[in-house]
Amino acid sequence: MMKKLGFGPGLRATALSVLILGSSVAAQAQSYQITGNVNTLATLFSPGPREDQQHAADFNFYDRPEAKQTQTLSESSQVSNSGYGKASLEASIGRLKAFAESGYPSGIPEPHYYGYSFGTAQATFADTVTVSGAGLAPGSPVRYALHLWIEGQISQPSFELGGHLVSDGMAEIRLIDKVSRAEKIFSWNAKNQSTGWYRVALDTEVGHDLLVTGMLYAAASVDSSATLAHWAQSDFGHTANFYLQASQAGLNTVGASGHDFSISAVPEPSAGLMSLLGLLLILHLQRRRTV
Fold first, then answer.
1. What is the reported pTM?
2. What is the mean pLDDT of residues 281-289?
């Protein structure tokens, strides 16, 4: 579904917070869901007639077959002075990718171009995992950990005072016990945190349902007044993967969508996945020593 969006550079941070809040609140009532939104814009105020080009697209699949399949979006916008914005994403249960890039020439030399461009991409997923298995009776206390593996980078410099240049990368993981309403959230920001492994853990009980959600956001914007650089990029098109680790072997890690969040369900381990296997082995050995 194509959609024209009207927010500019000054409103992008507000729009992001609304999107994150909206997807999180909506997801609490869902069984499984994926969403995606890309928005690109390029403007030229002078010289000559004003130019505006904007392209956006989105999807929101809840408890539908499309939510069980990988979905992609890609858009770009450009004006005659070569100012441009582009954005793309890939979304599936347990895996998200996002990419944004923007470029705009300086407005200082002749012929004094003035304008701006940006690209944004955001993808989310939500799935419901029933706590069961391992031969445990309803009410037995257990713990689940949600791991995030994130790769990618934002261009440097990532910000110029006045918002003339911006590159952003953000991610979020959350576990929610839909019965007790207990919740664990972790938010990641490329500006002050490295890529790699992150996790949250939640105590729950056999018989409860867990909501597993993930979010990935990329943004890049430049205007003609920027002096530090005239190009910005947020590249998280490599991947953000999400995995569940249960406190006991045999506990369920398959969501209502049919997706298996366990690390053992991944067919082709990468270097990052192998490091998680090593981490899980260390945790297992430490747990055995304390028993």
1. 0.84
2. 50
